[in-house]
Amino acid sequence: MSCSFLDLQITEVIAAGATTVVVPGMIPLGCEPQLLALYQGGGGDDAGDYDPKSGCMTRLNDLAEHHNRALNHALAELRRAHPGVSLVYAELYRAVTDIVVSPGRYGFRDMPLAACCGGGGGPYNFNMTAFCGAAGATACAVPSEYVSWDGVHFTEAANRHIACAVLNGRPYDGGAPPTMSTVTAWPAAAEVGRSRIGCS
């Protein structure tokens, strides 16, 4: 996503009357079962390619973090251009990595990088020729115990935890490291969302 595309999209939403715009950050790509299976054994110094705590691919996560820094920089510029609008950055990256590093804490199996539905077996249960829904693919018995549904999409349970982490956190509306002057509370409507999806 280029900054000019982002500028255009957000400017159009503001022109339509939005006063609060939530912009989601990128998830940790290196924790996606599809990408992990695709690049598995892809060469390089294998030991340095995976985070020892999460098992996620560091190069892809570094790319996602770079994207999120650029996104926050672009949002800071947009805030200056639209001072009457609250542009809020939703931190998805940390919400996902928290679940992947400590799945049991959130009620998931101790295999957060494996897809519930797939036909690949192995540590990621993902194979492009046996994608979820294709012949040879099977679904796990209890999807709510898995983080990934099909290697690309999160399960409903994981999405709920991610949404709760975002809604229970204090959203950034100031770009760089938050201070009390740059961190705002979610709009009151967010409380309805927290209640509806069962956030504690």
UniProtKB/TrEMBL annotation:
It holds the Pfam family Lipase_GDSL. It comes from the Eukaryota. Gene3D superfamilies: SGNH hydrolase. The keyword Metal-binding does not apply. One of its GO terms (molecular function) is hydrolase activity, acting on ester bonds. Keywords: Glycoprotein. The keyword Magnesium does not apply. Coiled coil: none annotated. InterPro entries: GDSL (IPR001087), SGNH_hydro_sf (IPR036514). Belongs to the 'GDSL' lipolytic enzyme family. This is Uncharacterized protein. It comes from Oryza meyeriana var. granulata.
